[in-house]
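User: quick one, sequence for these tokens?
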């Protein structure tokens, strides 16, 4: 439900306006076709917007492999027009993500995923944004990230986890996201050692691509940090 009109800049505020600034509703229907196949059907309505429909499905392909699919269809402005305030009519398009996860007996898990956003910038849109002032592309990227949207029309992701790497309770997690439109990518890797009361982690992140690409435009091309967690 709507609780506030807008987000609050105060650091001490609950900031209900960031998440509950309009009325929204969601209806979900879950089905289990068999022990190996399950799905969920969704109907979502937001105040002032057309209703959106969606579905997701998981299937056990074997003892080691699981496939997943997510799909939604909605009527909205395309991301470029919405971010830059360009005159445009709402169109009905699709969002989709699908992939496979394979897990070995050695606790290695690998997920490959394809992602599609019909409202995102196509290759032609990227060319147009590249010739526009840099502020236009920055505005588009900021708006897309704020909405947690896929920036490009298509993207690929590879996600890897390895439990007990070399020694007990040492976990490796890594992923690579690749923008197929501007060929930029984000790489992230973490080594985390677990103890009964605390964790210690080393994280590395790399953004690669041209200076006007999705990841190349970011100010920090490489980030390395050490994190510690203590559990009371």
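Assistant:
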């Amino acid at each position: 439900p709507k609780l506030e009109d807008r987000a609050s800049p105060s650091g001490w505020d609950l900031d209900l306006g960031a998440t509950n600034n309009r009325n929204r509703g969601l209806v979900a229907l879950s089905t289990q076709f068999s022990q190996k196949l399950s799905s969920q059907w969704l109907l979502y309505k937001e105040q002032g917007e057309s209703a959106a429909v969606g579905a997701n499905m998981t299937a056990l392909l074997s003892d080691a492999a699981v496939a997943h699919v997510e799909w939604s269809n909605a009527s909205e402005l395309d991301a470029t027009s919405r971010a830059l305030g360009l005159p445009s009519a709402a169109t009905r398009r699709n969002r989709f993500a699908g992939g496979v996860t394979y897990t070995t007996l050695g606790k290695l898990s690998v997920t490959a995923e394809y992602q599609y956003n019909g409202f995102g910038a196509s290759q032609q849109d990227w060319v147009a944004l590249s010739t526009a002032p840099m502020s236009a592309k920055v505005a588009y990227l900021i708006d897309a990230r704020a909405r947690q949207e896929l920036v490009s029309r298509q993207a690929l992701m590879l996600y890897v986890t390895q439990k007990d790497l070399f020694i007990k309770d040492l976990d490796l997690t890594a992923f690579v996201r690749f923008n197929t439109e501007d060929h930029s990518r984000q790489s992230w890797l973490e080594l985390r050692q677990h103890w009964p009361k605390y964790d210690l982690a080393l994280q590395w992140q790399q953004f690669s691509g041209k200076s006007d690409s999705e990841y190349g435009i970011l100010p920090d091309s490489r980030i390395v940090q050490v994190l510690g967690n203590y559990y009371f």
